[in-house]
Amino acid sequence: METAKKNYKGLIILLALVLIIIIGVVYANADKGSDQEERIACTMDAMMCPDGSYVGRSGPKCEFVCPENTEENKKPVINSITPTSGKVGTIVEISGDNLAGFEGDLDAWITNDKGEKAFLAGIGSVPREDGIIKVEIDSKLCTVVTTYSGLECPSYMTIIPGVYSIYTAPWGKESNKVEFTVTK
Q: Which of 63, 91, 101, 120 could form a disulfide with 105 if both were Cys (CB 3.0 to 4.6 A apart)?
């Protein structure tokens, strides 16, 4: 009978230890939270990254995480244009970084004060190492890119004297805008 009591006490101690371990594991995992029980809602603010892109808060700590600054995601930047004004027909040199687009395209865009935009096809087809794009400010510019399709331009923007903004958008990443004044 003594042996049965000792075995019974040992079994109770063993069950108590197992129960304590189970409670400890459940408590430790409960601290981490589960996706279904504790979802964190991050605020909707944004931060500008060094490459010029914007990111929102994300992850379990609602942190801003900028993409790695690799060659593929560097934002194009216009450092200067020469000249900054001229008549229709003026050739403008756009100088900057990360300006080359698909297959080395060196094109730009121009917008008027109404927000209408037109395409400025780069002059010359060889990608330049010096970061310069040359474009001509024509009197009538296509509002879409038809370079690769070969289709006729569906609509044009007429260039008249006034202040315009010139920018590049290789790989869908828009550069800063620089003013150009079309004179009479």
A: 101
What one-character-per-residue DSSP string does 68-88 give? P--GGGPPPEEEEEE-SEE-T
Q: How far apart are CA 51 and CA 175, in angstroms?
A: 11
128 and 113, same domain (yes or no): yes
Split at pLDDT 50, 70, 90, the class of 134 is very high
Query: Which pLDDT score is estimated for 99?
Result: 87
Q: Are 166 and 119 in contact (CB under 8 A)?
A: no
122 to 1, 46, 107, 116: CA distances (angstroms): 100, 34, 4, 19
5-57 pLDDT, tens digit per residue, is: 666 777 788 888 888 888 877 776 665 554 444 567 787 787 777 666 677 88
Question: Distance between CA 119 and CA 174 in Å, rounded?
Answer: 13
Domain carrying residue 58:
39-74
The structure tokens listed for 40 are 């964190």
Are residues 106 and 170 both part of a single domain?
Answer: yes
